[in-house]
Specification:
Layout lengths: L5 H25 L7 H37 L6 H8 L1 H18 L4 H32 L2 H12 L5 H11 L2 H34 L2
Helix pairs in contact: 1-2, 1-5, 1-7, 2-4, 2-6, 2-8, 4-5, 7-8
Length: about 210
């Protein structure tokens, strides 16, 4: 299908999954429903750090790569002011969560403030993602050429996302049909990636999200 932004939608899907489970995890640890030892504290802190990096990378790529192409292609049909303003409020929120993650690592403690910050980030980003998918995705499909969309995706891939973090999370939210299509398009290298990359990541997830 022309300009079907599967990568963008999958990134959103993975982000929403983590927003839900990180907010739930922090709430559980704050209220004492789950234990937290030094090893797990370090794992939780590291995951939070990677997650904040992932969000920043995603929205910076939209601001600096996708938005200019969309504005050039759609012209008066697009107004990105509200979405750009949403992005501007993210950095302070991420900074608070990074600070909370350091406290988790150093004190093996999840504070009520961190739990509240994660719940706030979840609510903010869920609303933002819904707005973006309702307004931006149809404009991409209608106005951005195949050639320009391919350039957007290629440019974003070169921006240095942490693939050992991004790929397993994307795979986890992909349907069997989407995985089959990826194997078909990517051949043996992609099939091997789909099989191998999630293995160590699952161990990491088990430590972070399991009591």
């Amino acid at each position: 299908m022309k300009n079907e932004p599967h990568g963008l939608l999958l990134a959103h899907r993975a982000m929403v999954r983590d927003l839900d489970r990180l907010a739930e995890l922090a709430s559980g640890l704050t209220t004492g429903r789950e234990r937290l030892d030094r090893k797990r504290a370090a794992a939780v802190a590291a995951y939070l750090g990677d997650f904040c990096d992932s969000i920043h990378h995603h929205h910076a790529a939209e601001d600096e790569v996708l938005w200019p192409v969309l504005e050039r292609s759609a012209g008066a049909h697009v107004d990105l002011t509200e979405l750009t303003d949403d992005h501007a409020v993210l950095d302070p929120k991420l900074a608070r969560i990074r600070a909370g993650a350091r406290e988790v690592r150093d004190r093996q403690t999840v504070t009520a403030e961190l739990a509240a910050d994660l719940a706030d980030l979840r609510d903010t980003l869920k609303e933002h993602i819904a707005d973006e998918e309702r307004t931006i995705v149809p404009l991409i499909k209608r106005y951005v050429s195949d050639e320009d969309w391919a350039k957007v995706e290629a440019t974003i891939r070169k921006r240095g996302a942490k693939m050992s973090f991004e790929v397993p999370r994307i795979l986890a939210v992909s349907t069997e049909e989407e995985l089959a299509e990826a194997r078909k398009d990517g051949g043996i290298p992609v099939a091997l990636m789909i099989k191998i990359m999630p293995l160590s990541f699952r161990r990491r997830e088990k430590l972070v999200f399991s009591a």
